[in-house]
Amino acid sequence: MRSPAGTRSAEPGRPNRQSDKYTRFVSAGLGRELASRLGLPQPAVLRRYEPGAALITGPVLVEGSSAGADALAARLLDWDLDVRRHAAPKTKLGAIIVVLDELADPSGLSGPVRSVGASLRDLSANGRVVTISRPASADLDPAGAAGRNAVGGILRSIAKELRHGATANGIILGDGADTTSVSALGALRFFLSGRSAFVDGQFLTVATGSGELPQDWDLPLAGRVAVVTGAARGIGEAIARVLHRDGADVVVVDVPAAGEPLAAVANDIRGTALQLDITAEDAGERILAHAKQRYGRLDIVVHNAGITRDKLLANMDAARWDSVLAVNIIAQLSMNRKFLASELFHDHPRIISVASTSGIAGNRGQTNYAASKAGVIGMVSATARLMEPFGGSINAVAPGFIETDMTGKIPFATREVARRLNSLQQGGRPEDVAETIAFLAAGSSGGINGSVLRVCGQSLVGQ
Ligand code: NAD
């Protein structure tokens, strides 16, 4: 996670410095032909979000015969989509949405799922499959739970079968939500759009109908004030830039040693810089004081700052262990206590914490880092109920292999294997993490609370 000060590694719309040359080589001309003949991986150039661009190209097929499917299909017409309720052979599709909200048992899967199978060959490059279903819980009858849980196996398998940059993700509707609830629509739009380019094989639970849709989908954060920690470079810098592009005023925070690149980021995005070590006891108060003085409010907190100090546990010293835990989780816990107690942060606040797939799967040499990131996931799930009184939410984003200066320093062969070990056969970009965070920061995700969303291209590491 190190890059030279001042690196512009992740400006939305601009290629990352560490971009994957192999992907570019095999995506056209001689390179494509060669890779095809030799049976080498052919990662697609992913469709990424551009403000003002079409949400998706081509018709959207809504499969399913429930009232929820009808209501959703009608609602999607508001987005100027070409919505189809029946497949027409050989018509290229932009997306297939499978609504299974009334599934009662596994035998109900055969019709809709085989129908999706028949349309998959017509899915365009960078197309989307999205399932909408209900959660399997232990208090259901066994057949109902089997059917609902089966959706997980289907969706994750489809994601592994898709090619050419297409992805498959699922929305799970809790008791308080239906297919046209605000956050069901928000999550659906995120999964259909280029914002979710590197999110694949994942589920998002929409628990309630809370949240609100933006007046302008290209400026979902207009009028909101955000703080991003660790924003002088890398993923944090990309988050600050994307939140600004989406309409927020942004306070960028980093250690005093990164003051110069931090000021440059703040300047570029017309935000403000706050030099601060987040492990300082008064870090929460200082962020609140800065936000109050400059903007009079604070709405969005992105806990991105993080460090690694890798060592096998047998060789782990106290300094390595303590510093990683202090920055990656203990500082967040302390700052959140201050934020939650402040009236400045009580208007539908949002907290998004950056975890890691290492916190889910564990990683050799990273007991300290994996502990801190698994800790983040635990903290997020237990803080969710504390956000409810303010109409707020807290969620975690768990990146997999992201093309940063850190991963750029991994020896070539190891890096090449690590970045291909996912369904999209490539590393993600800092802005892929940033887009996901911006989605979770928006009003349209208000019904999503206490979740972990992986941005990993359906990494083979972990679940
Ligand atoms: P990076 O090292 O490039 O940037 C981290 C930033 O945090 C730096 O600017 C650093 O100065 C700042 N920071 C560190 N300690 C701080 C402190 N005490 N107070 C304030 N700022 C501090 O890292 P990155 O690759 O951009 O990673 C960002 C986040 O994403 C981290 O939480 C990391 O664990 C997580 N992550 C990264 C990857 C990846 O592939 N790069 C994968 C999974 C998770």
TrEMBL record:
<protein>
    <submittedName>
        <fullName>3-oxoacyl-ACP reductase</fullName>
    </submittedName>
</protein>
<dbReference type="InterPro" id="IPR002347">
    <property type="entry name" value="SDR_fam"/>
</dbReference>
<dbReference type="InterPro" id="IPR020904">
    <property type="entry name" value="Sc_DH/Rdtase_CS"/>
</dbReference>
<comment type="similarity">
    <text>Belongs to the short-chain dehydrogenases/reductases (SDR) family.</text>
</comment>
<dbReference type="InterPro" id="IPR036291">
    <property type="entry name" value="NAD(P)-bd_dom_sf"/>
</dbReference>
<dbReference type="GO" id="GO:0016616">
    <property type="term" value="F:oxidoreductase activity, acting on the CH-OH group of donors, NAD or NADP as acceptor"/>
</dbReference>
<dbReference type="Pfam" id="PF13561">
    <property type="entry name" value="adh_short_C2"/>
</dbReference>
<feature type="domain" description="Ketoreductase">
    <location>
        <begin position="224"/>
        <end position="400"/>
    </location>
</feature>
<feature type="region of interest" description="Disordered">
    <location>
        <begin position="1"/>
        <end position="20"/>
    </location>
</feature>
<dbReference type="InterPro" id="IPR057326">
    <property type="entry name" value="KR_dom"/>
</dbReference>
